[in-house]
Amino acid sequence: MAKRKLRVGMIGAGGIAGVHLGGWKKLEKDCELVCIADVNEQASKARAEEFGIPEVEASCDKLAARKDLDVVDVVVPNRFHKPYSVRALKAGKHVLCEKPLALTPKEVDAMIAAAEKAGRKLMCAQHERFQDSSRAMKQYLRDHPIGEAYYARAWYHRRRFLPARPGFIYKAQSGGGCCIDVGVHILDLAMHLMDHFEPVSVSGISVNKLSKRPEMFSEWGGHDYDKKGVDVEDFAGGVVRFADGAALNLECSFLLNTKPHAEQRIDVYGTNYGIQWPSCEVFSQTKNDYLDMKIDVRSSGAKAHHEEIREFAEAVMGDTEVPVPPHQSRAVMAILDGLYRSQATGKEVRIQ
167: pLDDT confidence band, cut at 50, 70 and 90? Predict the structure, then answer.
């Protein structure tokens, strides 16, 4: 661990900021929360008081440009991920940025270039990788090769959970809807389990079919959310093809007429066996019979968000590779960007 504490600044004081700040506070032996900034100064002051942060910076731009920080944690609406991250990287800080890393692969390229030029680390906060079930499943795959992982299905569905807040339902701030809010989670984890990060094409749809209906409601927004203002997709689905010939079927939704109120699931089919997450089941055979088993998942007692922060901090202090390499996040965003382009053209598109 480092001889002196990592000095950390937080850009953003919304809901997810509280989760991140809790993670940094757990690392007080090695990390120090120095300052916070948000366009809402009152929100910044409230977070500073809640978590004992000594300074409230005048603006997010000023915080990003400060020279006395080691790390900047970016937790603002998606549209601002790239500009604040790049500014912080250019000022010599390591950057942890909430998902999605950026809105397009070109924006991610600019962030990676800034990190490489500055010699600093950049990581997307894909906390699903740090769930106990995800870690157990990935370790099993490392210890027991699945063979050729040739097909997967991944979905993250919500029945009536539209996050009816500007940062999620207005494209000017979010850049998209369920694709880059929940789809980004399940897609990243599926590709992580498959160990496939070379997508070549995608074909699918990205549509708004339910959110504007007068009778529609959200368990997070009641019946009174601004239905006319919603301009992002509430459902998306498609098929991704990879360079090695494998394929993945992706689905995600905020509002869907389905039985579970909320469900995440990944199935990966390999030549040696198949898996299902988050149940962590394995489906194989003996010479003459089925062989099914369930992996033992031990509870760490830690929140996945906090574990991602701990491992990021350890990578910074130990100068090792971050656990979510930015080129992998680039592949995820290239797929989601391709899905939007496929909706616009009505055709399969090549990944850029």
Answer: confident
Dihedral angle over CA of 226, 227, 230, 232, nearest 10 = 140
The CATH number given to whatever domain includes residue 149 is: 3.30.360.10
Residue 31: which residues within 8 A CB-CB, separation 6 or more?
5, 6, 8, 24, 71, 313
DSSP string, 308-334: HHHHHHHHHHHT---SS-HHHHHHHHH
Residue ranges of E strands in 171-261 = 199-207, 235-242, 247-253
Residue 272, number of CB atoms within 10 A of its CB: 13
Mind listing the pLDDT tens digit for each residue in 290-331?
Answer: 999 999 999 999 999 999 999 999 999 999 999 999 999 999
| Separation CA 34–CA 298 (nearest Å) | 34
* CA distances from residue 30 to 3, 24, 74, 98, 136 in whole angstroms, order as listed: 8, 9, 20, 22, 27
Q: Which two tokens stand for residue 17?
A: 């900021």
Q: How far is CA 232 from CA 83, 166, 206, 228, in A?
A: 22, 11, 9, 11
CATH number at residue 14: 3.40.50.720
Q: Scanning the structure block, which residue is given the tokens 């991944």?
A: 154
Q: Mapping DSSP to helix (H, G, I), strand (E, B) and coil, where does residue 242 land? A: strand
CB neighbour burial string for 94-106, b if at least 16 within 10 angstroms, e if fewer: bbbbbbbbbbbbe
Give pTM, 2 decimals.
Answer: 0.96
- Which of 125, 140, 168 finishes a domain? 125
Torsion of CA 352, 251, 238, 129, to 10 degrees: 30
Domain membership of residue 35 as a residue range? 6-125
Judge whether residue 221 has pLDDT over 90: no
Q: How far is CA 155 from the centre of its chain?
A: 14
Cβ(247)–Cβ(187) below 8 Å: no
